[in-house]
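User: Hello! I'm new to structural biology and keep hearing that structure can be predicted from sequence alone. Could you demonstrate with TIGR02217 family protein? Please show me the input and the output so I can see what each looks like.

Assistant: Of course. The first part below is the input, the amino acid sequence of TIGR02217 family protein. The second part is the output, the predicted structure written as tokens.
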Amino acid sequence: MSEFEAFHEVRFPIAVSFGATGGPARRNEIVFLTSGHERRNARFADSRRSYDAGTGLRSLEDVHDVVAFFEARRGSLHGFRFRDPFDMKSCRPHEAPAATDQPLGMGDGTAAVFALAKTYGQGADAYRRPIAKPVAGSVRVAVGGVEQAQGTDFSVDHATGRVTFLPGHVPADGAAVTAGFEFDVPVRFDTEQLSVSLAGFRAGQIPTIPLIEILP
């Protein structure tokens, strides 16, 4: 069974997620040479995000909700959706997603399926991040700069992030396919135990609730 087969399409308590801390991490290998120079190699092609949701707890009700969520996921067994408080849209945080935000590819007159992605940076140094968990109702798609209609021109698999153009609406050869969207991050608990103290919580001691991204 793959990690995504053991995935629950539910979102971590959103009030807690907006107070979480964390972000992307890279695994690079740096070798120091006898000449004094160094050689750097990327061990993984994609970044992997991790979060601490404990910093988002504001009340005992939040603690209750997180414990119930942890139990329902069987600890780290099942993945789930997490709303990254810093990076949740195809555009800047204060903007609304537009159908031309992110390039998905070029039509060839035959290909009907395009995977959602978000590009960071520009040119040869740009990093293209796969987006597997778009938010239902948020995906907007354009072909050649002209916005398409969901349900008529295309459909979206919100569990995989794939956009499928319907028969008669496949992008023509050379037509740019773009999209705008909101998205969640697929994560799991990175612990087998939650340790919460009622006395400690009242004293301002926030428990650690580690989450780790599941890469597709």
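User: So the tokens describe the shape?

Assistant: Right, they're a compact way of writing down the 3D structure. Reading them back into a model, for example: The CA atoms of residues 99 and 140 lie 5 Å apart.
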